[in-house]
């Protein structure tokens, strides 16, 4: 592929946190981790607040919104079938395996994932990327809107990652396309109204990560072979 993979915990995070940069980067695939449907279907407070009566209705509509939003940025969408924390979540190992498989298939030059602030699914996604780092450059993005009002959470996360042996430097991507990002945000019709727009349009921030050296993860498929 030789492009960029942006890892999005939910169907909107990559655009909210990195949409202007995605529009400027060229060949980008956005891989959304928690895009699966729970069985049997559920009805959660978040989905009701988003205007949906069931998880099936919510996830089908949100996947469509994501396709439309990423189309506005010229990026492609890949939806993994793992379950959002609000539907009961999934194991950290399942996230590691799914991301490993997708990144191995796409062979990007750069993977950009969440710093992991403000939501357990964001933390699980970051931890999966650091537990089994991709064989290419790795950046983390400031989670928007969470990092605009959880400064302590952001600085605590930085301190924790450095204490664990990961090295973080500020990354400077090329200037983003804010107008394209605004268009894309507007296509998440069910979600955008639940967040304050001015917290999604602050400057996007990124860090280049050199993950600590650790024993490689043994993947089930490889182990079986
Ligand atoms: Zn999210």
UniProtKB/TrEMBL annotation:
* Molecular function per GO: hydrolase activity, acting on carbon-nitrogen (but not peptide) bonds, in linear amides
> Which BP terms in the Gene Ontology apply to this protein?
glycoside metabolic process
Q: Report whether rRNA-binding shows up as a keyword of the record.
A: no
Q: Could you list this entry's UniProt keywords, alphabetically sorted.
A: Zinc
Q: Which domain of life is it from?
A: Bacteria
The cross-references to PANTHER family, in alphabetical order and at most eight, read:
BLR3841 PROTEIN (PTHR12993:SF29), N-ACETYLGLUCOSAMINYL-PHOSPHATIDYLINOSITOL DE-N-ACETYLASE-RELATED (PTHR12993)
Q: What is this protein called?
A: LmbE-like protein
Q: Which organism is it from?
A: Gordonia polyisoprenivorans (strain DSM 44266 / VH2)
Q: What is the lineage of its organism?
A: Bacteria, Bacillati, Actinomycetota, Actinomycetes, Mycobacteriales
